Amino acid sequence: FGRARLASRGILSPDRTDISAELRDLDPAMLRAAFPDMPGARVNGRLHVQGSPSNPDARFEMEAREIRVRGGGIGNLQDLGATAQARLGRDRLEARASVASPSGVAIDAELACPVRAELTSVDVSPDAPLTGRIGGHADPNSLSFLRRRRAWYEYQVPGVTSVSSWEPVFARVVHFFLS
Known about the structure:
By secondary structure, this protein is mainly beta. It has one helix and eleven strands. The strands form two sheets. The protein has a nine-stranded antiparallel sheet with strand order 1-2-3-4-5-6-7-10-11, with helices on one face. Strands 8-9 form a two-stranded antiparallel sheet. It is globular. It starts with a strand and ends with a helix.
């Protein structure tokens, strides 16, 4: 993968898990032959899993810099930065992600969901409650489709009960920005 580097180490036994992996300087644009709309970026990530195989504690962190997005109806955004963190335990998944640009765009999201997890499997019940928050702002001068006003949006979703329930939330976010 060009200048990208992947390093890993770990111990896995019937009663103990301690695995770490680190990815440095991956540019997803290298995959454009297979995925033509893949953005360019510099991506770094870390994964650490510890605990017993039946009761794992997994943590994931990712950072992307210099994200270059073309097309997709959002213009030509440059120099976006993104971060993501996730933690998976035996009975809960928690995740947070954010994207920001020097041109005045910022989006932040959090979610949590009960799960049943072991080292090799994660089960999410279709009726498991999914809770979260989506927030963000954009300067209309920085995005061609946001010409009429500065927008600030935050949406609390206390009653969301499945992943498919997020579709109306995203539809409302898009409607808010375009209206």
